[in-house]
């Protein structure tokens, strides 16, 4: 169901996959599409290759990477144990947008991939190009999202090149990714399986299969060491400040009008339904409110588009935190630095 099958012009893409696999075997870094976002891949067993990922992205070295595999058997050489619950999840959701944190087996995956942790993050992407590339290279591929650190994750090859052209060996162009937000990261080493990052597979869906699931993705207490190192980093923030508005479109419009009266240029992030309603300097729609999957798939592209405008401030509509909406709001809140405005509460 997650397989993106509309992208592959096999005649065109196969030579790209072959060439990319060869580069990966030589220890180079290559970007490739997955069903979530583009990844920046390198041989996960080769420390020099993995270091090139951190260098190209400008990524802090203590933020570990996800290892991508194409077959269930590859897991045995990477992890020391597969708990029953993980087995059940693999059976049900792989290939797919679910990353599992499992105990790491010593000696195969580079310690640079796992940033010295005793656990490793693994996923099997549901994208024909990603799977073919992993198979062709014969390697487990370490791959974070293929953006410069601090930029939105890329959902097209053009996004990858905008951030990384000249810094990587290449990108396999498989068209637009499908889901548009990153995989769900689930810690299977915790007593209760814990979501460290909401994503393509929702908490509701996980709970149907394995019962209780904890949500560890909320902002952690600063004193506490974060379970997922990625949680402590500042994420994408647009060039101009962004605020999330909880309220009606007419309330949001009053906020726009106030800023414009102060001489500011204002952007609005909305959906198709309300696109014609707003009067502002840049009104950008991402998908339809009636299908939040369309919002997820266009979210990062829309955020990148705001950076090409000259707005001083962006107001974003909010979305229900159910299903994929949880992942959408998680990314929006990070982009907005958790600044919110609620209709009916006093601000200013
Ligand atoms: O959809 C995705 O997951 C994409 C595609 C390319 O597969 N990849 C991706 O990777 O989003 P990245 O590196 O941008 O995010 C990986 C997240 C980070 O938050 C990182 O801290 C966490 O996974 N992570 C990796 N290894 C971990 C570990 N051993 N324990 C806890 N968290 C881990
Ligand atoms: Mg990322």
TrEMBL record:
Give the UniProt keywords, A-Z: ATP-binding, Cytoplasm, Nucleotide-binding, Nucleotidyltransferase, Transferase, tRNA processing
What's the catalysed reaction?
L-threonine + hydrogencarbonate + ATP = L-threonylcarbamoyladenylate + diphosphate + H2O
- Which EC class does it fall in? transferase
The processes (GO biological process) annotated in the record are: regulation of translational fidelity; tRNA processing
Residues holding L-threonine: 36, 68, 123, 143, 183
What InterPro entries does the record point to?
DHBP_synth_RibB-like_a/b_dom, Sua5-like_dom, Sua5/YwlC_C, Sua5_C, T(6)A37_SUA5, TC-AMP_synthase_SUA5
Purpose of the protein: Required for the formation of a threonylcarbamoyl group on adenosine at position 37 (t(6)A37) in tRNAs that read codons beginning with adenine.
Q: What is the protein name stated in its UniProt record? A: Threonylcarbamoyl-AMP synthase
Q: Which organism is it from?
A: Parageobacillus caldoxylosilyticus NBRC 107762
């Amino acid at each position: 169901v997650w397989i993106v099958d509309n992208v592959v012009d096999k005649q065109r893409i196969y030579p790209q996959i072959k060439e990319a696999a060869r580069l990966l075997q030589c220890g180079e870094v290559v970007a490739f599409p997955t069903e979530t976002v583009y990844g920046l891949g390198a041989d996960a067993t080769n420390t020099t290759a993995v270091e090139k990922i951190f260098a190209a992205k400008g990524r802090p070295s203590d933020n570990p990477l996800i290892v991508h595999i194409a077959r269930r058997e590859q897991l045995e050489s990477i992890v020391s144990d597969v708990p029953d619950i993980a087995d059940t999840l693999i059976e049900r959701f792989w290939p797919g947008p679910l990353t599992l944190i499992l105990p790491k087996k010593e000696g195969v995956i580079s310690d640079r991939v796992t940033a010295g942790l005793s656990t490793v993050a693994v996923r099997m992407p549901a994208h024909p190009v990603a799977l073919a590339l992993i198979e062709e290279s014969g390697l487990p591929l370490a791959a974070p999202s293929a953006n410069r650190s601090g930029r939105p994750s890329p959902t097209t090859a053009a996004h990858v090149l905008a951030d990384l052209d000249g810094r990587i060996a290449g990108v396999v162009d498989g068209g637009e990714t499908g889901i548009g937000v990153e995989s769900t990261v689930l810690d299977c080493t915790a007593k209760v399986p814990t979501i460290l990052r909401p994503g393509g597979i929702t908490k509701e869906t996980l709970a149907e299969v394995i019962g209780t699931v904890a949500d560890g993705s909320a902002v952690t207490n600063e004193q506490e060491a974060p379970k997922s190192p990625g949680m402590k980093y500042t994420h994408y923030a647009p060039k101009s400040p962004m605020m999330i508005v909880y309220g009606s479109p007419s309330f949001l419009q009053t906020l726009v009008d106030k800023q414009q009266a102060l001489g500011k240029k204002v952007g609005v992030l909305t959906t198709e339904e309300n696109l014609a309603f707003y009067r502002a300097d840049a009104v950008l729609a991402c998908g339809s409110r009636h299908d939040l999957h369309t919002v997820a798939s266009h979210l990062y592209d829309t955020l990148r588009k705001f950076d090409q405008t000259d707005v001083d401030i962006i107001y974003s509509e909010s979305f229900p935190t159910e299903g994929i909406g949880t992942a959408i709001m998680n990314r929006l809140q990070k982009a907005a630095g958790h600044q919110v405005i609620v209709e009916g509460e006093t601000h200013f």
